[in-house]
Specification:
The chain is mostly helical. 54% of the residues lie in helices and 0% in strands. The longest helix is centred in the middle third of the chain and has 22 residues, at 59-80. The mean pLDDT is 82.
């Protein structure tokens, strides 16, 4: 039957007929829509009259699912990684990080990957005499600078207030 409808459309097109297809809210009460509904369903079947063409999955749905599966796999790897603990403490959920608008600078990357110019890092390369923070509170690491350093407490408090006023936590 499908070939018949397609042949009819081609025949009418060859006769210079202009055929318009459009959506109709409901076929009830509109003369001819019952027949049009039946013909539309027949036209939606493939050549072998086995599969319905309109049951195919849209490309966007497939892409969304692939992205979702990729994010799930990424999260699993993220959770099991031995590296990036500091960065992971800021962004434990990959999907939330992907939604975060964040300007990545060399300084940000250096600190969050524990390659910043802290005394702990510099000492590894014999560029510092010791690993201690100038506040004498212990080893100077990115974590201690961000969370614990007494010298940086005023800046940390100011930043925390600034974030809170913009809806952060």
């Amino acid at each position: 039957m499908v070939g018949g409808i397609r042949d009819k459309v081609r025949h009418l097109s060859a006769l210079k007929w202009v055929i318009h297809f459009g959506w109709v809210k409901a076929h009830i009460g509109v003369e001819g829509n019952e027949a049009a509904d039946k013909l539309a369903k027949e036209a939606a079947r493939d050549e072998n009259d086995q599969n319905i063409v309109y049951d195919k999955i849209p490309t966007t749905t497939v892409a969304t699912e692939i992205n979702k599966q990729g994010t799930i796999k990424w999260q699993c790897q993220w959770n099991n990684s031995q590296k990036g603990a500091l960065y992971r403490s800021f962004f434990p959920v990959v999907e939330q990080r992907l939604k975060t608008k964040l300007t990545i600078t060399p300084e940000f990357t250096a600190i969050t990957t524990v390659h910043g110019k802290t005394k702990f890092y510099l000492y590894r390369f014999k560029l510092a005499d010791d690993t201690y923070c100038p506040s004498n509170e212990g080893v100077q690491t990115p974590e201690t600078i961000i969370y614990d350093c007494k010298i940086l407490e005023p800046q940390r408090s100011s930043l925390t207030r600034h974030i809170a006023t913009r809806g952060g936590k």
